[in-house]
Amino acid sequence: MPESETEHIDYYPSGWTEHIHDDYYIEWVYDEDDTILVRLDGTMGDDDYSVIPITGINTDGEEFVTRPISKLQRREAFDVAATLIYGLNGAIGRVKNEAQFTGDQSD
Questions:
Q1: Which residues are paired to 72 by β-bridges?
Q2: How do the domains of the chain map onto residue ranges?
Q3: DSSP at 12
Q4: Is 15 exposed, middle or buried, given 0-12, 13-18 or 19+ CB atoms closer than 10 A?
């Protein structure tokens, strides 16, 4: 697993890339489909971080935002971002039938 360059996340899943635009705006992008990402946005202030899971782009070029989570403190926002990154990674792995994510299925 790659080591995060952020102060509050130690590692993130392989197959993702961390883009640190600045201390308050960070994205973790799924390597195989760069329209799948988790964005952490703290540009509104210390107690108003948002974490935004994005799962694609529609035909008009608009991001498909499943549901932003807002009004978070910084540490809490990183915890939510990590949870979403690992959750999306697990769901993608399961849909792709990757062995590490399908252990509960029998043949």
A1: 49
A2: 16-96
A3: -
A4: middle
d(CA 24, CA 45): 9
Alpha carbon distance, N-terminus to C-terminus of the chain: 29
Residue type, 48: D
Q: Annotate 51-76 with DSSP letters as a single string.
A: EEEEEEE-TTS-EEES--EEEE-HHH
Spatial contact of 80 and 69, defined as CB atoms under 8 Å apart: yes
- pLDDT per position as a tens digit, 15-46: 999 999 999 999 999 999 999 999 999 999 88
pLDDT computed for residue 107 by the predictor: 53
pLDDT band at 106 (very low <50, low <70, confident <90, very high): low
